[in-house]
Amino acid sequence: MSAVWTVLGVLLIGAALRDIFDTLFHPVGRGRIGRTIVGAVSWLSRRLIPGGSGEALAGPVAYLAILAFWATTLAVGWALIFLPHLPEGFLFASGLEPADHSGFADAFYVSLVNLTSLGYGDVTPQETVLRILGPVETLFGLGLLTASISWLISIYGAIARRDVFAHEVWLARESEERLGEKLADADPELLERMLTSFTDQLITTRRDIIHFPITHQFRTEGEERELAKQLPFLGRMADEAAEDGRPQALRVRARMLRMAMDDFAETLRRRLKVRGDSTDATLDAFGAR
After folding, report:
1. Own/partner pairs for 68-73, CB < 8 Å, 24+ apart?
2. pLDDT tens, position by position, 95-115
3. What is the pTM assigned to this prediction?
4. Which are the contacts of 156, defined by CB distance < 8 A and separation ≥ 6?
5. Which of 18, 226, 273, 277 would you label with 131, given CA atoms 20 to 30 Å apart?
6. What are the two backbone dihedrals, phi and then psi, of residue 92, each rounded to the nearest 5 degrees?
7. 3 state SS of 52
């Protein structure tokens, strides 16, 4: 039976490490367990908390839920490895009766102490293998802490890039309304530079969604920073700049922006399950979320 617990523990640790790797380091961020948790948190937040408060909390709660899952899975996995060795493989401080500390709760306690590197000293391993495994688990805990901080920094970096992009498009739209003149009728070179910048930022935003799909759950306040609300204007500006009679360089940049929008919509359909059978329909559904 001890071999069964050990194998099960190794499988749990492997599952946690695989999801951590897929979420943080895989080029398309395909951590399936993490994505399932994000979807569940998003669904619950919309139904349990009325208004927009639930959606605003979905991102941070999903992030914490994923970290809790990783930490719990690692702790339980290591506990199952230590379980067959209790109590014979450990030394207990005076006042503790070894026979009373041979269950899963005690193995889980030992695992948590190792994972968090607390080192109380009331239960210490005496078998050589266990003395090696303890520090190894501590390294896993330190690695999880470092990975969680790095992931959070990456998430907020992606959110900042998305918000800056949205704000810049909003400023362009506001400028058009205040001037009473379409940007497509402005200086061709100026408009070409704007379209180039918008294309680059949209491509970056698309890559951020692929790498860090959880960023979709982090909502921002204010229409000027809400990208979904700015995309219809961006599409209209690209279509107007691509009309016949415009300079060839401007039309090329406008077509490139439209192609980037097509790719962005495809990513929304494939990665975030946004509905729509065309780019405009998908972007409209994205804005209605």
Report:
1. 69/16, 69/33, 69/34, 69/37, 70/16, 70/19, 70/20, 70/144, 71/115, 71/144, 73/12, 73/13, 73/15, 73/16
2. 888 888 889 999 999 999 999
3. 0.86
4. none
5. 18
6. -110, 145
7. coil
